Amino acid sequence: MACGPVPRYFFHIVNDNFASDDKHGFDLPSLEAASLQARKTIGAIIADELGQGSSNIPVSVRIRNEAGETVANLTVHTRVVASESPFAD
User: Fold this and answer.
1) Residues 31, 11: contact at Cβ < 8 Å?
2) Distance CA 72, CA 35 (A)
3) Is the terminal CB of the chain with fewer CB neighbours within 10 Å at N or C?
4) Which are the contacts of 21, defined by CB distance < 8 A and separation ≥ 6?
5) How far is CA 43 from the centre of its chain?
6) SS3 content of the chain, % helix, strand, coil (to 5)
7) Please, how many CA atoms are within 13 Å of residue 64, restricted to the half-sphere of its CB?
8) What is the spatial distance between Cα 57 and Cα 78, in angstroms, rounded to a whole number?
9) What is the pTM assigned to this prediction?
10) Running DSSP on this structure, what letter comes out for residue 28?
């Protein structure tokens, strides 16, 4: 069974501390797989930022195809709210 070429997706990442423009891309079977990879990347960035003591973490991942078209944009903004009481709202 012959399959077509696997699409290449490029991930452009931006948050308050850095911007990364993906020049190499990743061969992934579908946009759904690319979106899952973007979610994993966002999770890793948030975990790293939390580990460094950040409490306000915006992260955006724009996914482009080989033609340079934006096919998805995932944005997450995480804010840590600390309280003196563990039962405070």
Assistant:
1) no
2) 8
3) N
4) 12
5) 7
6) 25, 35, 40
7) 13
8) 5
9) 0.82
10) -
